[in-house]
Amino acid sequence: MPSALETLVKILRLEREQGCNDTAVIGGLSKFSDHWVHDAHAQARKPEHHLLVDELQQLLRNYGQIENRTERQKQIQYMQDRIMGRIPAPPEFQPKAEAATPAPVEAAPPPQQPEEEKHPPRPQQEQRREQKAPKQSQKQQKPAQEPRRKQQESSRQPQRFTEGSAGIDEFAARPPPPDIPEPPRLARPPRRPRPQLDPEEALDVLRGLRQPVTVVKGVGDRMAESFHKLGVHTLNDLLYFLPRRYDDYTQLMSISKLRPNMLATVIGTVREAAVKVGPNQRKLFELTLDDGSGLMDITFFGQTFLARQIKPGDQIVARGETSIFRNRLKLTNPEWEHLDADNLRKVGIVPVYPLTEGLKARGLRSIMKRAVSYWAERLPDYVPAATQERAELADLGWAIQNVHFPKSQDHRRHASNRIVFDELLLMQLAILGNRREWQSVPADPLVVSDEWLDSFLQAAFPYTLTGAQQRAIADIRRDVAQTVPMNRLLQGDVGSGKTAVATISLMLAVANGRQAAIMAPTSILAEQHYRNIGNALSKLPGERQPQVALLTGSLSADERAEVRARIADGSVDVIVGTHALIQEGVEFHDLALAVIDEQHRFGVEQRGLLRGKGKNPHLLVMTATPIPRTLALTLHADLDLTVIDEMPPGRQPIQTRVVEPVARERIFNFVESQLEQGRQAFIVHPLVEASEKIEARSALEAYEELSKVFYNFRVGLLHGRMKPSEKDEVMTAFSRGDFDVLVTTSVAEVGVDVPNASVIVIEGANRFGLAQLHQFRGRVGRGQHASYCLLIPDNNSAEARERLQALEEISDGFRLAEMDWKLRGSGDLLGTQQSGERVTRGFRAMNRLSEFVTPELVELAQREARTIYEEDPDLSQEQHRLLAQRVQLLQDERSDVS
Questions:
Q1: Model-wide pTM > 0.70
Q2: Rounded to whole angstroms, how far apart are CA atoms 670 and 672?
């Protein structure tokens, strides 16, 4: 368990990385200090420790009142220096000195002789210690004269710990590494005068980045194939092939100083290494690492092949989270590599890149060093000088150099900010250019009267729409009445009524004698829309009812041919389908409006294919995945945004509770009581199968176990490795009530209604983002029954508890998404926006550096992109020529920007 000071150090580091916005903990540092101070005082051992805690509490309480970000950075740095003992305490927080007892006159030391001045005087503390120490007999002095070898051996015993052993005493007194220089800090990144390059020469350099990676010295055809497996094909790919982590040799800790639950990088010599048989008769590879201060056990489950790579006497670097097993400190399945002595001699921050067969860590670093050193000095900076000055950005070459080989963490932060800003800016400009191109082709306006809309609402919907739904309909009516085609994103929480808005939108086209279509990612969701939309339209008065058809891959060949014929001759008004809608052979008679549900499951190419089925129809895309507004406006800059931020009245709140793993049996008893009442349950797991690297419960293991626990009930299994048809079949069976319990991973479809499901249990809940947990929670509470969401974490850290407790208190998915963004970065949120599971090369920096995709940086890039676009939408002005070339390069790389 980390000490209070260690916890505070992590929070201060996170606060600094997030831009000093007082967002590292929920409620800010002031609120955090009220809880923290009690633990810190409880662990204090000396008066000076209590004074340190009091000083830190005062600084934390006043932190939120500091308005200047630079001053906040100074405050953070001061607190870190005080904790590490690098600077002394101010006078008001120093222990009061006891009154000194005057020494007797006869005890006064004699005047020093001149020759003694040649020797530096010893510290007074040492002199006093010698004066007070009684003379020891030879027998008493013996223990102090034991051979140094025996002392060293005893000090290198494996670390043993008991609960709470990592106290403030050890941490507060820990000095900084004695022989490591203080890393340089940067208040702002350097900006050098730009070299005067001939514009054509600069364009040639940018075009040269399209050359294959084989032009780099040392990269042959065979190595190029290895690079291709990692998505590196060109010089540009290589320069933006970013490290997956950094080993900071300026922050190394010895084994004797490590504590449980720390993310640590350890360097040492392998003393023992052997393949053994572990629990459940599984073979494992185990070694003992010695760094001179202590010994540490390292275990690799399921990786016995490492016995051929790691031998006794080897020096290795291992990085992972420390844990305790049988009261001994250890690492389990850490990342590792053989020690490169050059890295240790340089004492710096060393990049660690993704590897594949044919690429070794040391050789890859040499290639990257060579390429980066050459090109960083030659890259023309394509961001306009005015933008660079307003945004306080580093030079591009400096940023490329320091994102790969940073001189300090500050250098890395400024470099990463520049790289992420560039990607955000280029992406915004590319998407805005696409929007301009799409909207240059006119669409047919769709106009209906207020009287028609009122009569349709009264006939189709037996309830009053919420204010948010009415505002969304007003936005859509205004868009489709224009000749400029609508491109609108409708974002609404689970159960907010997006389907009703979509149904009304489809009818705007039907009322004008035109066709409309809605595309869903799965057959089961398409069938659900088909039933709901069909029921709503069947209530309309009149002689001719609008005709609704369903087109999915599950139809037989004859059925598909019949539906396609009816779509082509115009006898169908509303078409509901899956990807089958955009396949060859599907021809619409007169498509005027298209709706895409769960749009994050489709790429821009697929949107374009659906648009191409008509005369540039109006487009509405919908999502129930909560994305912070700022990020949504960046990722979907081509779409106007409407948010349904109001829930229909009468929807029962879902009772959410965090439950410790030890109470799992009690949870199952509660689930069984719900099943006995005729309800159904979801049980979600983070993994499909048991993993050697991740200690988490898997769906396959749980399915076997829960089939025995709920032996009186029917248990089903759903996971991502099933074929799409198999997943649809299982989900349909669960919706029908064929299963009482569904054991699943994260693939349980968003938007699928199972009104009878009243409880969802989420194992390893701390492994999911808040927005994703909120999505899981939305699988229940869709009927009239009281519903429950039970969260079982497998990590009891303070951060995990705080995040999950927020889910207990907050039911607004957008608030949770904003909170997740601030706490965890944008990684999860960006992941939900990718088409399928493949990460496109155009998003490489934002995915690798997701912790730097902060709200402030996104807003800054968004503002600068719109400024440039409004001034020069074609990017044809002289100062934007390089930028236009870079946008084109991005468009060529990204498969989903066309």
A1: no
A2: 5
